[in-house]
Each structure stands twice: as structure tokens, then as C-alpha cells.
Amino acid sequence: MSEHILSNKQGRVGVITLNRPEVLNAWHSEMRQQLIAALETFSHDESLGAIVLTGAGDRAFSAGQDLNETRSFDSDRAVTWVGEWETLYDTLRSSPKPIIAALNGVAAGSAFQVALLCDFRIAHAGVRMGQPEINSGIASTTGPWIMREHLGLARTIDLTLSGRLMNADESHALGLINRLVAEEQVLAEALALGEELADKPPVAMRLDRQRFKEITEPGFRDCLEAGVRIQSEAYASGEPARMMEQFLKRRSA
């Protein structure tokens, strides 16, 4: 099995690396399953007090969904796909340990959502973030829920319908990036923060994260229910497949 996810321990911090740099760390089903397994392993490792999530290479944290997978989906597969994301997002939300995103490059679409589900985001000036799913024919369901929790409705509408990517300065000003550092310092800063958080009382840390999950759970469940309905309708229309095919042709031209 290909190692789409790499993991190692550095002190009391577990580091998970998205490892498909040749496609900007875009993920497919197998990669998501490997990510879930790595998160669960570190979440249950009592020698660790924090988790850092980053991407391989210097171009992308992750470009989000691998469109070569989703362009062939029918409505039934799209519903299953929503369930796969539910499992990943539940795993992120349920960890007793704080999770830090070390953003080494672009975080787009579902990768933007994963970054926002982390507790902290460390980035450099060249990072771009956003929700460009509409540009490839994907209707957004989990994205608007996560963005609204952070940004409110007006900015959520802007980012969802325009599909634009924000630069690091805008993301930092909005509070989506917690710390901006030099590019070569992103991982080191994330590890230092991880060690700082690992020194906090673990029961209080677990209960605080649990409470954040409880506060946001109704909206999370609502967006998943909507996702089943919306993605089923979208993929039944054939529009996502057409738009993804056009997008991939433009990218390879």
C-alpha cells in the first residue's frame, strides 16, 4: 500500500504529513482512510500531548479533493463520499489532543475545511486558503458550516459563491491563521506550539475540546444531512462530472 500519509513523533508531538506532493497532496479515499488511522493512533498514544498536520513539499498543504476520483461519481457514490468525510471530520473533532495545522502552501476546498477543524493554524506569507469548489462543479455543504462558525454568514457567502482564495494577510486578519512566520519556520513554530500545548493538563485539554465539539455538533449534523441530499442531487444532474472534466483539461493544457 502506498504511503499517502507519513507519521513520526518529535518529542511529545505527533507529526502527520500528507504525502502526495505530485498532485499537491490532493486526497482520495485511500488517503483519507490512512489519515483517519494516523489520527486515531496518535489520539490514543499517551506519550503524545499534541498533533501537527502538514503537507509534503513546498507548494501545498493540500489542494483538497482529487478530482480524478470524484469526476466518475454517480449520485449513490456521492452519498457514500459524504459519509467518508463525516468519518474524517468526526475523527478530527473527537481527538482528546490539540491539533495544529502547519500550512506549508495552499489549503483549498476540503483541505481548507480540515485546516479550520484544527485548533491552530501556522502559516507563511505565501499561503492561500479558500473554498474554490464551485469552480469545479462541487456544491459546498460542510464548507459553509465550518466557515460560518469562524467568519459569519456574509463572508461565508462571499467565499462559497466566488470560489476565490484568500492570501495569508487576509486570512490572518480574519483570524483563520493564528501565526504568520517565515516559510522555513512553519513546521518548527508548529512543533514549538505543540510542545507548549502538550504541557497543559490533559484532562482539561480533552474536556475543552469535547465542549467545543458539543457546541458545534448540531450544525455539523445538519450539514451532513444536507450534504447527502445536495450531493445526491448535484451528481444526478451530471454537472459535477462535466465541470471537473473541463477543469482537469484546462489544468493539463
UniProtKB/TrEMBL annotation:
InterPro entries: ClpP/crotonase-like_dom_sf, Enoyl-CoA_hydra/iso. The lineage of its organism: Bacteria, Pseudomonadati, Pseudomonadota, Gammaproteobacteria, Oceanospirillales. GO terms for biological process: fatty acid beta-oxidation. GO terms for molecular function: isomerase activity. It comes from Halomonas binhaiensis. Gene3D superfamilies: 2-enoyl-CoA Hydratase, Chain A, domain 1. This is Enoyl-CoA hydratase/isomerase family protein. Belongs to the enoyl-CoA hydratase/isomerase family. It comes from the Bacteria.
